[in-house]
Amino acid sequence: MTLHLFNHLLAVGSVEAHIRFMEAFRAVYRNRVVEIILLLCAASQIASGLTFVRRRWRERHQGLDLLQLGSGLYLAFFLLVHVGAVLTGRMQFGLDTNFYYAAAGMHVLPYRYFFLPYYFFAVLAIAIHLARALHWLARDRLSAAAMRAATALLSMCGFAAAALIVAAFAGGLYDITVPAKYLATFQ
What we know:
Blueprint: H1 2-10, H2 15-29, H3 32-56, H4 65-91, H5 99-104, H6 112-138, H7 144-170, H8 180-183
């Protein structure tokens, strides 16, 4: 996940930087064995997260715990949609699921009204979820004030990263011409 987010942050510089990095690491993560392991990990995260929510639903209705609950539920939704969309793009449409595949939805009305917040909240949810995981891992070693500060700092970094990534993919940082074959998936 860290490499994937780093890859998307490279798009802040240029589409070419994003695609070069992605192509370099595809040799690893598109290996059939590695890809199956990654898909199983995503399925495991979704299943374990939803199980955790179901078991602890009544205990999680206060303060910052709601952030963990909400971010986890959003990430489960995002992973299901995102992985399904990428596999569909590759297998059904025969597209290279690169920068342009992700960016296409942000360049077609009315789909941009779904994709802009969809990607923004995914990046923000990762940061918030990690911040709350840090809370649970370090709760006996850090004060409540330190935990709140760490949650705020990680959330602000997530907000900034989300805004930059979405701005890059939406064409807010430089002009983007999405090839017609990617735009055609929305017609």
